[in-house]
Structure prediction request, 227 residues.
Amino acid sequence: MITIKGMHDSALRCVVSEDMPQSDIPGAFEEILSKGGQIFNGADIVLDFGARSLDEILVSSILTNFVWSSGVRVAAWITYDAASQDNLKRVGLPTSEPLPSSGPKKSGPRAALMLQRSLRSGQRVEHRGDVIIAGHVNDGAEVLSSGHVMILGRLKGLVHAGYEGDESATVIARSMEAMQVRIGGRIGSLERDAQWWGRKVIVRVDDGAVLIDFWPELKSAKSEEAV
Prediction:
């Protein structure tokens, strides 16, 4: 099933169910185009495939049977499959969430991305703004954010906060179980036998060093340490 949702700036989001067989997807796009083709003409859309991987056959079919025939402008191809992201970028297709364009442009923080799912090995989230993951980041998964990153579950994979060079960014995890964390251009290497392993932590950069600290309610009995 493909669900159509409204977004900012009158853009549309086409959410493709992860349970739909790949062979059914081209036909589903053709069906929504036949039922409501006028709403797509000239519209900005986001094609959201969730964690589904996208091969060249599927992408080519969607371009041919939906994008080019409907007159839409695709603002982003969203997938959390890292290999698919790399392939889409290689041919010049956008893979990042679009931001509101109305009103004056600001140099301040970008919109946050809230993701209510866990990330498996081989999946990646990349966002120019803060990222909140309401789930786990498993080993082999990646989160890249130009701002802060908050993981409301176990952090076992790779997180790079402030990946555009912002060393004021922080990483917050409900259960820190990762061997490495990156902030700006700094890398912190972590040890399993440290007192904060598996605990709620905040990671930040101070005076050029990556420091790890406990969440405020735990700090009375603990202290920060460089990693």
